[in-house]
């Protein structure tokens, strides 16, 4: 479903990812670990379309997202994102945040999809609250609902639990896995914490081990 072939990203003449390959199947959840600065976020940014490739190609569902000739803009890629600080819009309600990317739906369809997602993340009745009226874990679930809303085939998670405590992070890792599997959505989780990868992913590896195709399958 996602096919990353021989990519290289260059910042200020320094290659960060070089001859990097990764294939992900539909609905598969993959974890990437590794020391600070090794290029994990750069990989997600390249998939999302926030950095250009110096070499190689990224394809999603047989469509080319980018190579040396083409560059599909981020909003056209159909890739969802959940970040560390959840980046919810503070001036929009929970429902408004979830509905943000649903511009192609009419009002009724949009409302139905928002209600469906509020049920999925178990925040029914909280659609009118603002992000600051939610706990950190609830905010991260809303960020996930916002990413899931347009039904992307892939969601990128960049250290989504790093502002939460260990117990809540591990609880959310399991819960988010279940939600992704229910929605048949593939995901890449970037994290520093092996336990989160074990709980949320089907397989994981350090970025260096991805080059050698040396993955650890989880029991999740
Ligand atoms: N816009 C940029 N311009 C120049 N160098 C950059 C840029 N973004 C990242 N880098 C450098 O690229 C390298 C990889 O950064 P990246 O953010 O991908 O690492 P990471 O593995 O995600 O790190 P962390 O775990 O600390 O988030 C680092 O050395 C970083 O300083």
From TrEMBL:
Primary enzyme class: hydrolase
Top-level taxon in the UniProt lineage: Bacteria
Start and end residues of each ABC transporter domain: 2-220
Keywords from the UniProt entry: ATP-binding, Cell membrane, Hydrolase, Ion transport, Iron, Iron transport, Membrane, Nucleotide-binding, Transport
GO molecular function: ABC-type ferric iron transporter activity; ATP binding; ATP hydrolysis activity
InterPro entries named in the record: AAA+_ATPase, ABC_SmlMolc_Importer, ABC_transporter-like_ATP-bd, ABC_transporter-like_CS, ABC_transpr_FbpC, P-loop_NTPase
PANTHER family reported in the protein's UniProt record: SPERMIDINE/PUTRESCINE IMPORT ATP-BINDING PROTEIN POTA, SPERMIDINE_PUTRESCINE IMPORT ATP-BINDING PROTEIN POTA
Enzyme Commission identifier(s): 3.6.3.30
UniProt-recorded name of the protein: Fe(3+)-transporting ATPase
Biological source species: Thiomicrospira cyclica (strain DSM 14477 / JCM 11371 / ALM1) (Thioalkalimicrobium cyclicum)
Pfam families: ABC_tran (PF00005)
GO cellular component, one term: membrane
